UniProtKB/TrEMBL annotation, chain A:
Naturally occurring in which organism (per UniProt): Kribbella albertanoniae
Span of domain ABC transporter: 4-235
Record's GO cellular component terms: ATP-binding cassette (ABC) transporter complex, substrate-binding subunit-containing
Listed GO MF terms: ABC-type transporter activity; ATP binding; ATP hydrolysis activity
Gene3D superfamilies xrefs: 2.40.50.100, Nucleic acid-binding proteins, P-loop containing nucleotide triphosphate hydrolases
Coiled coil (residue ranges): none
Claim: Cell membrane is one of the keywords in the record: yes
PANTHER family listed in its UniProt record: MALTODEXTRIN IMPORT ATP-BINDING PROTEIN MSMX, TREHALOSE IMPORT ATP-BINDING PROTEIN SUGC
Protein name, per record: ABC transporter ATP-binding protein
Pfam families the record matches: ABC_tran, TOBE_2
UniProtKB/TrEMBL annotation, chain B:
Compartments it resides in: Cell membrane
CDD domains, per database record: TM_PBP2
InterPro entries found in the cross-reference section: BP-dep_ABC_trans_perm (IPR050901), MetI-like (IPR000515), MetI-like_sf (IPR035906)
Major subcellular location class: membrane
Name of this chain's protein: Carbohydrate ABC transporter permease
Domain ABC transmembrane type-1: 66-259
Organism: Kribbella albertanoniae
GO CC annotations on file: plasma membrane
Key words of the record: Cell membrane, Membrane, Sugar transport, Transmembrane, Transmembrane helix, Transport
Organism phylogeny: Bacteria, Bacillati, Actinomycetota, Actinomycetes, Propionibacteriales
GO biological process: transmembrane transport
Membrane topology category: Multi-pass membrane protein
Amino acid sequence: MAGIDIEGLATVYPNGVRAVDGLDLHVADGEFFALLGPSGCGKTTLLRTIAGLESASEGTVRIDSVDVTRTEPGKRGVAMVFQDYALFPHMNVAENITYPLKVRRVAAATRAETAERTAGELSLNGLLERRPGQLSGGQQQRVALARAIASQGKVLLLDEPLSNLDARLRLEARTFLKKLQRDLGITTVFVTHDQAEALALADRIAVMESGKLRQLGTPREVFARPVNTFVANFIGSTPMNLLPGVVSSSGVSAAGGTLPAAASIPSGAEVTVGIRPEYLTLSTGDAIGPGLRGTVVVAENLGVQSLVSVDCDGTLIGVTVPEEQEPSVGKPVFLTAPPDRVLLYDRESGELLARQPVA
Amino acid sequence: MTPAYVVRRIGFYVLICAITVFFAVPMLWIASAPFDKNPGLGVHWPDWTFENVRKTLDHPYALHSMVNSLIICITTALAVTAFAALASYALSRVRIPGRDALLYGLLLLSSVVTGTAAMVPIFVMIYQLGLIDSRFGVALVMTGGLLPAAIFILKDFVDAVPKSYEESARVFGASTLQILRDVVLPVARPGLATIMVWAFVNSWGNFLVPFLLIRSIDLQPGAVLMQTLTDEGGSVNLQVLPVFSLLFSIPVVVLYLLVNSRYGFRFHGGIKS
């Protein structure tokens, strides 16, 4: 087991695109680490650079404190599962799982034993003779994982591990994957464009945009306290409300009302106010304290809760309410928020403004 | 059902029948003439006998030429498949400027290599190499002629092998040769089989190259020997020729059936990427 250290890493394609652009990252031993970002942000390139399938243009990659920047993929001690699983269609499950051992000329008896054991760990018993084409998507994924585990790499790399599964299977596979990673305790880096997947699986998340790291933190940190408007927008299944606002003495005025804010920012500063729909409270009674006044425009049922869009002085603001409290359309409502949930971002740079309690 | 429609249908089926008969007659001839007591050039119900078969087997060169044909064609088919596999893998994976132009250029020129236009230079070249009257020399020239088209076809099959297969093998530590042997070639196997059969069939029927390059009658392949199957008077030996034709057609038919049953002659890799 081993950690990964990345310093000043850049991967530049021949056409001049800097897919990974000067990145520093440390993945701890045994950590389940997510690389998250929209398509084209360089997360897959970063993963492939760690694997050695792309060569780094600048910087270093160290696995288990050994510099592997110029090492062949096969000699880095990494195991990788590809997005399409890359199972060899002409080999059966057992042959697929033990291919990494065959490459290293391990004896056939040992290989058969490994296939049996690994297949058992991933509940693939009884499928060893099948061809990949005869397996379901979930089984194929487990074979790919089994093969990666059988190769006994120090680090496991997963490229979009769940994207090829259908929606229901994806949830099952997600739980399975998390449990497997915990049981094995193997350092794992996975790439995903799905923020929910990253939040659900990872111990820590690196949010990337255009080859750069935008935020690094635990799922809780990244969700509750995005350090810039890009991350704020990207994380969360219901998008964060981002409103233009001006700091005033009583808080921050935006969308025709005032929200409390706990930032030590001089009055009159122009900011972007960020607040998650989940952190807003909707009330239909009298207005008490600072808040936003508006009328309900749309209510979308999300199952256990509803996403209500409220028109506040011409700005649409999303707020989630429990299912039984869904207001009717056209109803005047009042929105309030706890001060520590209201985030203020610099209007120009989009960076989070330091939140310090007002003295 | 207007009368015009009926007439059109009748005309259509008559035409189909005529075309069918046109292609069926040689087939019927090859099926009946070898076992006929008085074989002619027409088709008629045979007067059954195995005398022709016996005569053919006794012919001093007939069976020998079949062996020659097999030696030449198996060598050619194996060489074409081996070289085309290596070349198409390289061309499929390595990015070189002008790669497609190179492929099309080769394809165009290949029809010249074994074609009539290049007969003299090829003869001179093989003469200088000292390969006149050698089955190996014939196989060499035919391999050269078939390779470009083989590379062109096989490259499509190799292109269809997903890159992630190879990368996966690479991460597990496989060398380029191991990747080619364990992953790429097995996945592209329908393509390899197609190329091998195609090369075999093409060289089996090739008359010009062995006709030019082989002098001794005991080294001639079937395709060349067939034109010498005449009796002392110079007229066609109608006792040996039909049987010989039948024997000559067997390998091609067998190969076709074999590949068709295993791969169904699909001209694609059959892999979803």
